[in-house]
Amino acid sequence: MRADEVLVAHHDVLRGLLRELAGTTDAQTGQRRRLRAEFLRELEVHAQIEDELFYPAVADVSPLLSVAHAEHRQIDDQLATVMRTAPDDPEFATEVRMLEATLHHHTVEEEQRMFPQSHALGEERLQELGRRLQERQRELTRSGAMRLIVRLKRTVLRLV
Question: What range defines the domain where residue 150 resides?
């Protein structure tokens, strides 16, 4: 699987979690907490594999890295608002929809602009990079250190 395909598949996971979260009601606080925490874990893994592997690999072929980093900060800012909003608060659904829109903008930007630029790396390099992305994603998903980072980030985002 090419690097861009790995990242699109993970974008689909992130979008699916937000869609599911947006479909909950104010009465489903437990479900909202669970989905919000799962989204945060997946997002942290996704950002880390992009920052560690993908972005450095495409730095010479895509001028969009600064935009991607800025969009990651926007996603984190909106996620902080979602984390600070109580799951039974009527505003929770609105904040999730805003996070959904922010994530959508970022993923479309990458998928339609940056990923085609990454094809300049060549098929062999994209395949190898895809393998490395998948391997690192599995490592991070199982990592105790990543669980600790996510717990810390969840606490920090609630305070910001």
Answer: 3-159
